[in-house]
Design a protein that fits this description.
Elements (H helix, E strand, L loop, with lengths): L1 H22 L13 H15 L3 H14 L29 H15 L10 H15 L13 E2 L18 H9 L5 H8 L6 E3 L4 H4 L14 H10 L9 E3 L11 H7 L6 H8 L1 H12 L1 H15 L10 E2 L9
Antiparallel strand pairs: 1-4, 2-3
Helix pairs in contact: 2-4, 2-5, 3-4, 3-5, 4-5, 7-13, 10-12, 11-12, 12-13
Length: 327
């Protein structure tokens, strides 16, 4: 009995600690510190988006990759130095767009250009605000962001392995990975909807169009016309730098067409298409394919929960002067 009680108490204390960590997050956190911070970040993001569209999917994807490894603490922004190989140099992060990093660096410079704000706003919070702003820039929903994160004190490539979803995962694997961060199946399907934007390199899905199985060289869950189109865009032995749009229909718009594509067999990754082929998730895909409002609401809920993952507080973090280097 005593042992069970100890375990229960230990589990409860862990829960209280993790709840405490994001309890410090709140809307308008910087109201008395740097009151115009959200406007400053939005203006910097808007200017960057005007320069290149890649800013949008690049920033959104970087936020996800940051939060899923050691929590939302901007550790993905740290550059490798000396004997430390940082998160960003792990193979799973090498495809993160440089424009995502540049967006945060430019927004940080804009914030720090205001004397009252200098070194008062964390890189983790700037990334969180910028992510919301790129979603809005692509026509997605606007939402109030919770702020108050500190920047993490460590960033290692070794910490990345097995923490990020793979393109060939099935529903059980996806659900388990998201559940480890307190995210539900609905949250996972909503966050997968970010694939309405951005692109992927051919090697991430070439198995589906050339060597799926002995019986079926092409994955039978792929729409045949779409498979042919992908083979044309990604011939065998293609240049590894060649990329294709995740959403073949409205690749520059944040919308619910991703789910309509799944209904048509136009999910680029196995991990996309499985959301429709698995009966446990199909109903959600159908619901959001028919209602952009329902998808937008679910996406905002999931992004808010994602932003609470592994938040650093107290001695576990600080505010970096340079987002790419520890103080």
């Amino acid at each position: 009995m005593g042992r069970v009680t100890f375990i229960q108490v230990f589990a409860l204390s862990l829960l209280i600690f993790s709840n405490f960590a994001f309890a410090q997050l709140r809307q308008n956190y910087y109201a008395n510190i740097c009151p115009n911070v959200e406007t400053i970040v939005r203006n910097a993001v808007t200017a960057k988006v005007r320069q290149t569209f890649v800013t949008i999917p690049g920033t959104l994807r970087m936020f996800f990759h940051d939060c899923f490894v050691q929590g939302c603490d901007a550790s993905v922004l740290i550059a490798s130095s000396g004997s430390n190989t940082a998160e960003k140099d792990h193979p799973d992060n090498l495809s993160l767009a440089g424009d995502g990093f540049d967006t945060v660096i430019k927004a940080k410079a804009a914030v720090d250009a205001v004397p009252a704000c200098r070194n008062k706003v964390s890189c983790a919070d700037i990334l969180t605000m910028a992510t919301r702003d790129v979603v809005v820039a692509a026509g997605g929903p606007s939402y109030a962001v919770e702020l108050g994160r500190l920047d993490g004190l460590s960033s290692t490539a070794a910490s990345v392995g097995g923490k990020l979803p793979k393109p060939n995962m099935n529903l059980d694997q996806l659900n388990a990975m998201f559940a480890s961060h307190g995210l539900t199946q609905a949250d996972m399907i909503a966050l997968s909807g970010a694939h309405t934007l951005g692109f992927s390199h051919c090697d991430q899905f070439s198995n589906r169009i050339y060597n799926f199985s002995k019986q079926n060289p092409v994955d039978p869950t792929l729409n045949p016309n779409y498979a042919t189109q992908l083979q044309q865009q990604c011939p065998k032995n293609v240049d590894p730098r060649i990329a294709v749009n995740m959403d073949p229909n409205t690749p520059r718009k944040f919308d619910n067409v991703y789910y309509k594509n799944l209904q048509q067999g136009q999910g680029l990754f196995t991990s996309d298409q499985v959301l429709f082929t698995d009966s446990r998730s199909k109903q959600t895909v159908n619901a959001w394919a028919s209602s952009s409002q329902a998808f937008n609401n679910a996406f905002v809920t999931a992004m808010t929960k994602l932003g609470r993952v592994g938040v650093k507080t107290g001695q576990n973090g600080n505010i970096r002067r340079d987002c790419s280097a520890f103080n």
